From TrEMBL:
Gene3D superfamilies, alphabetized: Nucleic acid-binding proteins
Keyword annotations from UniProtKB, A to Z: Repeat, Ribonucleoprotein, Ribosomal protein, RNA-binding
Gene Ontology terms for molecular function: mRNA binding; structural constituent of ribosome
Keyword hit for Transport: no
Source organism: Oceanicola granulosus (strain ATCC BAA-861 / DSM 15982 / KCTC 12143 / HTCC2516)
GO cellular component annotations of the record: cytosolic small ribosomal subunit
Domain S1 motif: 26-92, 110-176, 197-265, 282-352, 369-439, 456-524
Pfam families cross-referenced by the UniProt entry: S1
Keyword NAD set for record: no
Protein's recorded name: 30S ribosomal protein S1
Domain of life: Bacteria
SUPFAM superfamilies recorded: Nucleic acid-binding proteins (SSF50249)
Protein family: Belongs to the bacterial ribosomal protein bS1 family.
Function: Binds mRNA; thus facilitating recognition of the initiation point. It is needed to translate mRNA with a short Shine-Dalgarno (SD) purine-rich sequence.
Length: 561
């Protein structure tokens, strides 16, 4: 009986020792390295069980394995025995289990974890967190897009766990969160040491169309393009390059958003302080065209001082032309200062004022009566426009086209491009108008015909036509009309039919009208004038002589002569 009890106790102790020494599959056990051969470590995990583990499982990404005989390590027991009678163990799986325990605790406590980026996958990178592999999205690598992640590969650095699922084996980490946290702390410290108006050195980090971001030692400030220089800057890259160290002034600090506005031109003298002295009104200067718009062109007088040449001040003659057809960008031009507004920092310039008024020049070189020649530029209902010297036009009115007939009837004989000659009638420099005459080239036949005729003169005319209201007569080729009432002093003789075409008649000139080109003629006026003259010479009021006697004497005296 006692023997049976001792056997049962021995069996119980043996089973207990099996339970203590024999590890269960799927657990992490401790073992000792007993040999290293053929790229593997042979590990004794107890209870006369040995297993093999590839040496690479003992190495961190990018590092050589550090393992030697006698080292104690933890491994994951997958199977107690395989076909060769060896235990199937894994160091990598043991590290993973250990890492998951550690990472879950860090995730719960919102603590940082250390890891190393060791691979690139779609959408991001893989990170070794000391046994567990995590996914690092591309957007979580840095605060700004990273073009080359090479320098970050294999480098041990802190990460923040964003999400993890042990059952699915998913871990998502962020490097950006760590950087933003440290940047926030650094920003607060740097901003605390800055004040508005302070001049500091910074490094250009990034350039955009509207400005550049400058690193002030952990915090970025915006240097707007308008604050880079007093002159016009079309793009920041004209004066800045990435990586360049620049001296800037702190213009404004927003304590809430931690935004910093910077300026470079504020450290330079303002050219506007001396504008009125350097550029007095009506002075002429050479400048460079920097920008062209629909309403004019901007001309730089010096860096930081620009003036506008309005389209109306660009040319004496080109009134409705786009400024881009008169000047071009970067062209050097001479301009006159017309007005300065210091409050609005504006300078009004004139381009045409540096050149003489072409109408004044024309008036000096082409006085009235000068003969000119030009091309017909335009034909309107009231006349012709003729191109003249100095790129200006003169106008020939309908009334100045011909002496005979109407201008409306002869203007159709002209075409654009015809070269015509004309005489200058008038130049109005204020209204920029030049009046020309084509008919004046031939002289005025009316003026020539009546050149020696004065009002009151008696001339001999030829009767050319008989009408009910009077007779048409001709003098030196000029037609005139004598009304019925002017045909005789006596009413009974005021009959047109008593005259015949071809008759010569003496008439008195009563009017000379150059505008209508007509002579006022009267037989009646001649008779009355002759009567008065006879009375003065041959009779008096008290002689008692009759009118017939006086006229007879006058006529006789005329015959005697």
């Amino acid at each position: 009986m006692a023997q049976n009890n001792s056997m049962e106790e021995f069996e119980a102790l043996l089973n207990e020792s099996f339970e203590i020494d024999t590890p269960s599959e799927g657990s992490v056990v401790k073992g000792r390295v007993i040999a290293v051969e053929a790229g593997q470590a042979i590990i004794d995990v107890g209870y006369k069980m040995e297993g093999r583990v590839d040496l690479k499982e003992f190495a961190n990404p990018g590092e050589a394995p550090e393992i030697g005989v006698g080292d104690e390590v933890e491994v994951y027991l997958r199977n107690v025995e395989n076909a060769r009678g060896e235990a199937v163990i894994s160091r990598e799986m043991a590290r993973r289990e250990e890492a998951w325990d550690r990472l879950e605790k860090a995730y719960a406590d919102e603590e940082r974890v250390e890891g190393a980026i060791f691979g690139r996958v779609k959408g991001g990178f893989t990170v070794d967190l000391g046994g567990a592999v995590a996914f690092l999205p591309g957007s979580q690598v840095d605060v700004r897009p990273v073009r080359d992640a090479g320098p970050l590969m294999g480098l041990k650095q802190p990460f923040q766990i964003l999400k993890m699922d042990r059952r699915r084996g998913n871990i998502v980490v962020s490097r950006r969160a760590i950087l933003e946290e440290s940047r926030a702390e650094q920003r607060a410290e740097v901003i605390g040491n800055l004040h508005e108006g302070q001049a500091v050195d910074g490094v250009v980090k990034n350039i955009t169309e509207y400005g550049a971001f400058v690193d002030l030692g952990g915090v970025d400030g915006l240097l707007h393009v308008t604050d880079m220089a007093w002159r016009r800057v079309n793009h920041p890259s004209e004066i800045l390059s990435i990586g360049e160290t620049v001296k800037v002034q702190v213009i404004k600090i927003n304590k809430e958003t931690h935004r910093i506005s910077l300026g470079m031109k504020q450290l330079q003298d303002d050219p506007w302080d001396t504008v009125t002295v350097k550029y007095p009104l009506d002075s002429v200067h050479t400048g460079r065209v920097t920008n062209i718009t629909d309403y004019g062109a901007f001309v730089e007088l010096e860096p930081g001082v620009e003036g506008l040449v309005h389209v109306s001040e660009m040319s004496w003659t080109k009134k409705n032309v786009h400024p881009g057809k008169i000047v071009s960008t970067s062209q050097e031009v001479e301009v006159m200062v017309l007005e300065i507004d210091e409050a609005k920092r504006r300078v009004s310039l004139g381009l045409k004022q540096t050149m003489r008024n072409p109408w004044e020049v024309f008036a000096e070189t082409h006085p009235e009566g000068t003969e000119v020649e030009g091309e017909v530029k335009n034909i309107t209902e009231f006349g012709l426009f003729v191109g003249l010297e100095g790129d200006i036009d003169g106008m020939v009115h309908l009334s100045d086209l011909t002496w005979e007939g109407r201008g409306e009837d002869v203007i159709g004989d002209y075409r654009k491009g015809d070269v015509v000659k004309a005489k200058v009638l008038e130049v109005d420099t204020d209204k920029e108008r030049i009046s020309l005459s084509i008919k004046a080239l031939d002289g005025d036949p009316f003026a020539e015909a009546v050149g020696g005729v004065k009002r009151g003169s008696v001339i001999t005319v030829n009767v050319t036509k008989i009408e009910d209201g009077g007779i048409e007569v001709e003098y030196e080729g000029m037609k005139s009309f004598i009304r019925r009432s002017d045909l005789s002093r006596d009413r009974s003789e005021q009959r047109p039919e008593r005259f015949q075409p071809g008759d010569k008649v003496d008439v008195r000139v009563t009017n000379i009208d150059p505008k209508t080109r007509r002579l006022g003629l009267s037989i009646k006026a001649r008779e009355i004038a002759e009567e008065k003259e006879a009375v003065q010479q041959y009779g008096s009021s008290d002689s008692g002589a009759s009118l017939g006697d006086i006229l007879g004497a006058a006529l006789k005296g005329g015959d005697d002569e």
